[in-house]
Amino acid sequence: MMVNSFSQFESPVFLTIPLIQLALILPWAFYPSPSPRWLSNRTLTLQNWFIGRFAKQLLASSTPKVHLWATLLVSLMLYIISLNLLGMLPYTFTPTTQLSMNMGLAVPLWLATVLVGFRNQPTLSLAHLLPEGTPTLLVPVLIIIETISLLIRRFALGVRLTANLTAGHLLIQLIATATLAFMSIMPANATLTSILLLLLTLLEIAVAMIQAYVFVLLLSLYLQENS
To answer: Any idea where this protein resides (predicted)?
Structure first.
């Protein structure tokens, strides 16, 4: 039983064992394994089509060096989408509503893009901290501002994903609570709120997929900047 609206974001515990580990492992069980036959099943064909379309869209404007990261980016995209969509099912838990979980993904990947830049092109990476033609008096200020902007990227990745999913889940819960309250006293209003709840659920499914795409797209842009 939920004490308040934010109780749904607490990690469930069974026999003193946090079930967030199960929620993180569960998506891998739904991925179809490659078939040794020449003719694949519909699920595998659909998955391959989706991966191909996504990789083509993601890497269309990227440099060849970014293409080396395609496997990691596509895998991360599928993993985050699976976590987000599984969280839309009843009596489930969404790990990506936890800021610690998202920061655990965002910080190492962001740091990897920065290290790649300093390894491949250290001079150009440092040059990003100071735009060309900057007046001498503004040099220290702009270096500080650009450094802060670089450090904020890791928080932007994690906080954006957390905030969008949390807001959607809260709104769905509030409208569902209102629908249950209206059923006995105002059936007409309950019907309208039920339709609104259905539309909002479809919108939240779209948001869950879009946010996973945005997360990976920003990573690819950071890689392209540092490659």
So the answer is: Mitochondrion inner membrane
Q: pLDDT per position in the chain (227 positions), as tens? A: 455 666 666 666 766 766 777 777 777 766 666 666 666 667 777 877 888 888 888 777 777 777 788 888 888 888 888 888 887 877 777 888 888 888 988 999 999 888 888 888 877 777 777 777 777 777 788 888 888 888 888 888 888 988 888 888 888 888 888 888 888 888 888 888 888 889 998 999 999 889 988 999 888 888 888 77
Residue 13 gets which letter from DSSP?
E
Total of domains in the chain? 1
Domain around 75: 7-226
Closest to 22 in 3D by CA, of 74, 89, 93:
93
Would you say residue 2 lies in a domain?
A: no
* Within-domain flag for 63: yes
Q: Does 1 reside within a domain?
A: no
In 69-186, which ranges are continuous DSSP H helix? 70-86, 99-120, 122-127, 139-185
